[in-house]
Each structure stands twice: as structure tokens, then as C-alpha cells.
Amino acid sequence: MSDVAISTRGLRKTYRTRRGRKVVAVQGLDLEVPAGGVHGFLGPNGSGKTTSIRMLLGLVRADAGTMTVFGRPVPAQLPDVVGRIGAIVESPKFFPAFTGEKNLELLAEAIGAPRARVGEVLEQTSLGERGRDRFRSYSLGMKQRLAIAATLLKEPDLLIFDEPTNGLDPAGIREIRETMRGLGEQGKTVLVSSHILAEVEQVADTVSIIGHGRLLASGTVAEVIGGGTAPTVKVAVGDHEAATRILVAAGLTVRADGKYLLVEGAPDPADVTRRLAHQELYVSELAPVRADLESVFLELTEGEGL
Amino acid sequence: MVRLTKVELRRLMARRLTAVGLAGLFLITILLLVATWFDARPLSAVEQQQAQQQYEMAHKDWGEHAQEMRTQCEADWKTQPDPKPKLEEMCVYSEPKPEDFGKPPTVFAQIMPELLQGSSYFLAFAAFLIGASFLGAEFSSGAIGNWLTFEPRRLRVYGSKLLAAATGFVPIAAVVLAVILFGTFLIVDKLGDTASTTGKVWGDLSAIGGRAVLTTALAAALGSVVGLLLRHTAAAIGVVMAYLVLAEGVFAAFLEKAQPWLVKLNFDAFVRHGAQYSVTECKTGSDGSYICDYVQKTLSFEHGAWYLAIFTVVVVLLGGWVFHRRDVN
Predict the structure, then answer these.
(1) Which UniProt keyword terms apply here (chain A) (predicted)?
(2) Is A23 on the interface with B (CB under 8 A)?
(3) pTM more than 0.80
(4) So what's the ipTM on this one?
(5) CA of B142: how far to CAs of A92, B35, B153, B161, B328, in Å?
(6) Does B66 touch chain A (CB under 8 A)?
(7) Cα(B312)–Cα(A96) distance, rounded to whole angstroms?
């Protein structure tokens, strides 16, 4: 199996509005999703996540750029790999007047999956008892579960979830999160797009952040957090004014935060204590402040004017 | 492709609108047979007696006045300006016959082609409507996007949907037309005249029925394409209604010579193996008078067949091209 599940180079898509105005949805996106594990695909609303996913799935035509899935160029060779891809794009869309079971039966028959598989995936997604109810009578959480059941009909290696927790209650969100985590741990590749960072941070091994249809940062969660902001330490010291003067003179950035000072730019926290002690100011408390994905995301996207 | 077509057929037959449409077709078929039964009923004894009395009165009147009226007519004819109508056409006073009074018996061979043609209209309309909904609903619900994540080869998907719509209606149309054909035969056999139903008549009726089945299948496929292009059933029906009113109604009335290029006449010409239509032809007479006449013309079966074939191919290709290129959201 290829080490890279998804790769895009210079991907571009422009839409024309009803009034004829051109809107660039994706502009030169270079994306790489490693095979295995959960990959968070982050960006504010309108940043081009869904359009990128639609292009990967052959639903939308790219204006320029190349895409591969498991090393196969798509959309040209999408039929060769589509059996390995399960996808839910935005809200789950099935035939509303058919039962959940009927919807799955039609999909299973279309891909040549045995009918028994329908019952299995309904059980797997806890929909066994509601399988014979019409799709339109399902709650949003049940619709999401049915969509997941549909993706599992293929026993895919790559699962693409686009904003999977939109509109779900906390229990539903947790359920989806656990499902994604479980699939990732089974060695499957899960690409989850979201603008809710806390949701992704809890399950993702790697992330890509996009804004205005361009890649802003990519890597493991630790790499992205570490690379996005300068190291920050929280310092408790008696004389804030004197300490700030000393540290600013040393080229560091200092902000007051209640009874603490937040010091950015110190490559080693020991530098802070050393400089202050040298001026006979003694630190009573010092702790590194760990950046989270949200702060990195906001910093990156604010920098893009998003 | 075969597997996809089977799946689409299952979906078509599982749809509620298809079930409602089939129930509607069943109801119309029953109503048609009931109407035929009422039409074919012979007159009651009282009605027959009245008809006999009317005949006798008319015959008596003819015997007393026919010669006198003919003489008067010939005199009038002589005063007519040129061009004169033919004398033998203008002054006809035929002897009344008993069969001219009362109700003539219903003849199976005479009424059946009309009945089959009428049936082909409602079958085509139902097929178009259900075909349009078959694809229109898939687009309006967004289910097509999900479907394409399972089978991304769009032309296969498109072909399977059209094929399912068309083939799904072949047995439906065949059964409806067979019920109308044999049901009418049984009714007329009991109440009217089936003696003239020769082998050739059965052959002609079967051919009309076969072509009506084909037009039903084409209508289902075309409805599917229109549903796909407009992405909504109501929009597809609106387009058909607008066409019928504007093109077949208003346009055809104002530009009679364009009739051979409209769908309905070609549809009739194909189903009935030729169709009559009339145009107004006007000329100035030798005395300077301006005379307009309705002239009957015939549109050939071949014209109708080629027209429908080319029309279908163009619409299906257009739909395929649009579906192949269109972004699915």
C-alpha cells in the first residue's frame, strides 16, 4: 500500500455565481494525507474544504492541478479505487421515502456487495431496530449513522467525513468521534474535515489547515502546534514593571496576564529565570504554556485575513 | 451496466409515485372500457321505435319534395358566379335509408385504432411524468451525489437510469394496451360488430399497439432526461405544459405549415402509420374573389419515425453531455 493515501498538487477550482462573478474556492491546494490514522482537514467555513473533497470524489471538476488517491490519478482512475473509498459529504443524502435498509440494499446491489452485509452494517452502527423506518423519519444523528453504515458497505481503506458532527448533540458527537478513532486504529485512513478544532484535536494524528483554498500548515498535531507559535512561558514575579523592562530589553515579547507575565520568544525557559535573577528579581513560578490547535488555527487564519 | 440497470429498475418500481402512476393507469383503463361499453350499447326498444318513426317521416318528406327541391337547386346553381361548385355535389337529395336513423352498431375495427392512439397519449404522459420524477427527485434530494461516490462512471450511471426508465415502462404499456384491446373486443363482440375483424385488422392493431409501447418507453427516457436537466419534477412538467400550450397550441394555430415539425403530429404519424393535418390555402378567383379552403395533408409514417428518433437521440445526447460535465453538489 502507498504511504500516501491522498495527494493533491496545485488544485484549483473557480465557481461562477448566478450573476457571473467568479469566486475562487480552491487555489493551488497542495495536500498530502498519510495512509493510516486520522487526518484532520481544518479551515474556516468557506475555505474550500468541501470543494476539495468533492473534487477528490469526482463530484466537482477541478480547473487545474492533479490529485491521486492511493497513488492513482483521480478522477481519471477513480473507478479503480472508488471501492476503497467511503465518503460522507456534508449532510447525508439518501432517498427520503425509502427505508434506511432499502437505501443500503440499493447501494449494496450497485457495488455487488452481498445483501447480508446490509444487516451487518446496520447492526454495526446501532441502526438495526430502525432500519425499516423511512429515511425522512430519522434524526440527524441517525442519518449520520446511516451514512457511516453506507460507507462501511464497501469495507473501505479510506473514509472521508465532511463536517461529520454538524447538528449533532454531544452524545452523537462523541459517538462519531469514537467511530473515527476506532477506524483509524484499525489502520484505515480517515480524513475528517471540520471547522470545530476541539473535535479534530482529540482524534487526529495529523492535520492540514487551509484558508482561502490554500494550504497554511500541515503535519502531526504536535508539529503544527509547535511550528505555529513561538514558545511561551508563564512567569510569576514580584515586580512586573522591572521584569518586563529587563525581558523586553533582551528581545523577548512580554504581556501581562493577571498576576503572571506571558513571555514569548525564549528558546529556553531557563533564559528567563537567568536574566531576571541577574537583576535580583526572583521567579516564584514558571510554567511553559502549551499552544493548542485552536490558537494555531486562529493565528494562521487571522494572518490570512480570514 | 446490467447490474446498475437492475438496481435502477428496482428503485423505479419501489417508488411511491410509480405505484400511484400505475394505479392511475389502471383506473383510466377501467374508465375507458366502461365508456366503450356505454358507447357500444344498442338503442332501447323505445329509442328504436322513435328512430323508425323519424325514418318514415323523412322518407315521406323526400318522396313528396325531393324532385321539387332539386329543380329549385339547379336553378340556383345556374345563377352562381364562377367558379361554380359541381352540380352533383350541390344538389344531392338522396333517399333516406333506415340505417341513417338511430345509432349505428359499434365496429371494433373502426374504433380500436382511435382508442389505441388515445391510450398512447396518456401512457406517454404518465411515463414522462414518472421518468422526470425518477431523476428529478434524485437531484433535488441530493441522493445522486451519494450514488456517484459508489459508482463514479457517470455515463454508465446515466445510461442505466434511462434504460431502467424506458424498459420499466415496456411491460406496463404492453399490459395496459393489451387490456384495452382485448377488453374492447369482448365488449364490442357482445354489443356491436366484430365480424370485420380480419387477420389484417389484428395485424394493424398490433402494430399500432407495438408503436405505442415504444413511444411510452421513449417518453419515460425523455422524461428522465428532462428531470435530470431541470433537477426538479415540477419544472419538468412545467416545461411540457408550456410546450403544449405555446408550441402545439398557439404556434401551430398561427403557423399551420410548421405542424410537420411539431412533436404531436409526428407522434401521431408514427403511432397511426401516417397522420392527417389541414392547412388553409387561399387563392384569388377569376372574378377577383379571395377564397380560402382547408386542404388535408398527410404526414408520413417515415417522417414521424425519423423525427422521433432524431429528437430522442439529440435530447439523450444533450442530457448525457450535461450530466458528464456538471458539478454535483
Answers:
(1) ATP-binding, Nucleotide-binding, Transport
(2) no
(3) no
(4) 0.74
(5) 9, 43, 17, 16, 8
(6) no
(7) 31
